[in-house]
Fold these 2 entries.
Entry 1:
Amino acid sequence: MNSELMEALDTLEREKNIKKSTLLEAIEQSLIQACKGHFGKADNIEVHIDPETGDFQVLANRTVVETVSDPALEISLVDAQKINTNAQLGDIVKVEIHSREFGRIATQNAKNVILQKIREEERKVLYNEYYGIEKEVVTGIVQRINGKNISINLGRVDATLNENEQVKGETFRPNERIKVYILEVKDTPKGPRIQVSRTHPGLVKRLFESEVAEVRDGTVEIKCIAREAGSRTKIAVWSNDPDVDPVGACVGMNGIRVNAIVNELRGEKIDIINWNENPALLIENALSPAKVIAVMADPDEKTALVVVPDYQLSLAIGKEGQNARLAARLTGFKIDIKSETQAREAGDFYEYDDEYDDEYYDEYEDDGYYDDEYYDSEYAEEGEYADPDEAYEPEEEYAPEDDGTEE
């Protein structure tokens, strides 16, 4: 029986990752509980279990008395001397209790104690396992669709993809494999409750870490991300090694790295720009692919006036203001975009010549963002830095000041 017990404990430890010592402790508690159910009390009970062989002893400490009034705590001198011939009145004698003496109810209670302990430990192990990978990306399998929410199997536990964490327009089929960002892990009496997301900026960051070795080893840092899930993401990167081009590392040869991420995000556009500590240069990069004549940034007020060529105004603002909105979220500045003509008429642009040099812009046109062919006609149709690891609230959409120009 002991060998079968140890085999069962080994199986539980291997399959459910519950330590054998914890299971032995549960058995010890169950035996004490059985004694309490059988004798009515268990304050004087000792349980000894050999962790190697599984042999166990249940001993009751009983006081030697002349007349026994409480058999659970006392023993007569005659019975005590059968156990220890040197026993005297007032001594404490250890009396072995045999588990087969327990009644059916006491045995059932002992069994329930063991099962309850196993369930508690299993929940604890699962919680610790998934809490340790909170804010990470995992691959799950779509189990079922519950109304507007989706149940995702992560291996040993199911997670919930709520409607507000789903990308608008994305559809899933049962048994489909998808990558999700673990948003939150909560410990509940029924086991860990896991919330996952497909819209969080952290999903993009973790995907770059998995695809780009330079990001994974820290050579290239992702400084900030602004994302409109399902449509477009802007990401600012910085290299700690002057010999490594951060944008080129993230794009990969022939765009292989960024395209793998785009495919995982089901066609979401990704703009990769160079990070710069100078707010004006960062804002200029963030407004790519639009050309910028001048940026006047106020770091204290977190505001910036950006002047662009007349024919670039709609490109800078983007379709439905998306380019300007993402640039504002990425940089943390409230950005006011004006055409050159509007800036001159408003008196904001006196110190500049009437003509600007297109060759200057041509030289820097591709500096700091993904290749021109990556941008489609979508642009032309019309706070603080965004930390991708922080939980986020949907931000109020950026709306450029009414300058009389249709977007």
Entry 2:
Amino acid sequence: MIEVKYGLIPKESFCNYFNFLINKTYKILPLKEENSETLKSYLESFLRELIGNKELVPILVSEPKFITVLNTMQYLATEEYSVEVCKKEVFKCINILKEINDKYFSKGV
């Protein structure tokens, strides 16, 4: 079980949720490649979700890798960059999310 602000949630639920976050992170690539007008709003919404996680799940507050994901998403939401940079940063974040999932949520599930 993982302690959250409002009680306990099974590790398996967080493991599934982090896989969902990984898929949401991957979705950034086609939005950038297609030069989608919704990319900025998608990233802003994703950032709100990540920040909410930081508030809800105390274990993530002190995880520097999670803060790296937040910082990277902030950059992608506010700066201009190429598709190549986007790919690099998205895959970096996916790897970090996998590492966090493995470290805290998928062991012993």
